[in-house]
Amino acid sequence: MTTMRAAVCVQAGGPEVLEIREVPVLAVRPGWSLVRVMAAGLNRSELRTRQGHSPGVTFPRVLGIECVGVLAASTDPALPEGTTVAAVMGEMGRRFDGGYAEYALLPNALLMPLRTSLPWDTLAALPESYLTARGSLDALGIVRGNRLLIRGGSSSVGMAAASIAAAQGVEVVATTRRPDKAPGLSQAGAGRVLIDDGGPLAADGFDGVLDLVGARTAVDSLRLVRRGGTVCVSGSLSGWLIENFEPIAMIPSGTRLTSFHSDDAAGAAATLQRIVGEVEAGAYRPNVDRVFGLAEIVAAHRYMEDDAATGKVVVSTR
């Protein structure tokens, strides 16, 4: 094929700035291979990029920081054509076009080969959310028998973390702003769900807090862990910056504050293959909330912007 359908973000703005267009399929070049995209998970960072909040991003741009698919043309001898691959981050959908398209030309360094029998829509729910969840739990040092609080639990990463942690024998407590999302969190593995009304949480003594809300809640999260416990900030649902943050005054003595970013996932390909194997074995169930077609990208972004999802929103490009 010489052309393909792509959801092009033509300028910064609301969901309506995403337009389905027929665009050229880019030719491979040294160090880059062409992926036939089968599905792509949606992420809130793409919403903010669309709104114009990602520095350095120019428009028009095909968004999408992750995708799964099949190698259509490869320049990597270790990755033959027809290989199932996933790709995450590395400036996808920002510096170069990403996963909201039928094809994506991606750097070979981003391509993670996978062996899997999972349906494409299920596989697409795993890369960004589950790599972030797994990496965050590792950063927290959470082990069987620990108490874990997940703030922003009904996000895709929160649901993934609840599923993984519960399967490992961790006591999971999760928060959500919306009571109607509590049943979904319970199904994902949360033994207790707290409704976050914007004030301090009436709970403490956790071994770790995975904070996906970020700026609004990070300081409050620091008081919720036991001495020696850890808070890991891995999300920014409430924004990027903590105003007037004073580390010495606000981090309790003996408490650790860390973060995780999916670009930091050492051995990401092996970790993702492990996650795929665990899902195939039934250790936990991916939390796919809804699947949209590529032509429904505007509706998908509205759905995400309205905070309607409990879990992962996926776009199918097939």
Description:
The chain is an alpha/beta fold. The chain has helices at residues 44-51, 120-124, 127-140, 156-167, 182-188, 218-222, 247-250, 268-280, 297-305; strands spanning 3-9, 18-24, 32-41, 61-62, 66-73, 84-88, 103-107, 112-113, 147-151, 171-176, 192-195, 206-211, 225-233, 256-259, 288-293, 312-316. It is globular, with a radius of gyration of 19 Å. The mean pLDDT is 94.
Q: What is the H-and-E element order?
A: EEEHEEEEEHHEHEHEEHEHEHEHE
Largest sheet: 7 strands, mixed
The stretches of 5 or more residues where confidence is low (pLDDT under 50) are none
Shape: globular
**N- to C-terminal distance:** 14 Å
Supply database-style keywords.
single chain; 318 residues; alpha/beta; seven-stranded mixed beta sheet; six-stranded parallel beta sheet; 16 strands; 29% strand; globular
What layout of secondary structure does this protein have?
Layout: E1 3-9, E2 18-24, E3 32-41, H1 44-51, E4 61-62, E5 66-73, E6 84-88, E7 103-107, E8 112-113, H2 120-124, H3 127-140, E9 147-151, H4 156-167, E10 171-176, H5 182-188, E11 192-195, E12 206-211, H6 218-222, E13 225-233, H7 247-250, E14 256-259, H8 268-280, E15 288-293, H9 297-305, E16 312-316
Parallel strand pairs: 9-10, 9-12, 10-11, 12-13, 13-14, 15-16
Antiparallel strand pairs: 1-2, 1-4, 3-5, 3-7, 3-16, 5-6, 6-8
Helix pairs in contact: 3-4, 3-8
